User: What shape does this take?
Amino acid sequence: MFMTMFRKCVSVIVFTIVLLSLQSFTVVIDAGHGGHDAGAVGLTMGIQEKDLNLDVAKQLAERIRAKYPEVAVVLTRESDVFLTLQNRANIVNKCKDSKKLFISIHTNAADNRNACGAETFILGTERMDDNLDVAMRENSVMKLEKDLTVYQGFDNSIESYIMFELMQHDYMDSSLAFAETIQNEFVNTLKRANRGVRQAAFWVLLKSACPGVLIEMGFISNADEEKWLSSDAGKKGIVNGIFAAFEKYYKENK
Ligand SMILES: [Zn+2]
Assistant: This one.
């Protein structure tokens, strides 16, 4: 009797451990902007960044869930709602899995309407001055938030970025490897202009305690690129590219 109960207990414990070990990886997919924060807006077709980001984020989540049901896939938003940068980081940090990956999806814009191409950011301060405009634009959502005290004196001024110099990023190597694979997909598979893997001070990456990237899929301010980004083929290509990079990362890090 004792042995039978003991065996039952052991098999329940083993089953639980196997189940937990199968679900120990979380990917958080963050569609940038939303609600009254439209993000960048296309100059030719009027496409809004928030809608593109959400569409790609949802398709990517679907792809990962279909092929890797053991991975917990979390979307920071699933509809057109406003979220603060801190809300997004909180969603990442609330996930208890030991292995996590954060993918923030954005669309670029510039005054120069010829600017085009994809770039993938990780948190860092190398050549920060070059990338300050992108970081300031993506962080500027703070101005739309009611409670600015969460940002502890950070007001998106150039001076405020000096504080980023003092902050270390523990996940630099794994974030960099993931960013390079994504960038390879954009350049070699999707044939997009290569703006490279860059470092910048994105609040949402700083506050998320796991490896992560912020992808600028292309320039909505460029007429050709706006058309491509908003096409079904364009979005599908981007989803395939990020998915391929995720697969590589997951296989190496699960
Ligand atoms: Zn954005």
The mean pLDDT is 87. Residues 32-33, 39, 49, 106, 138 surround zinc ion (CB under 6 Å).
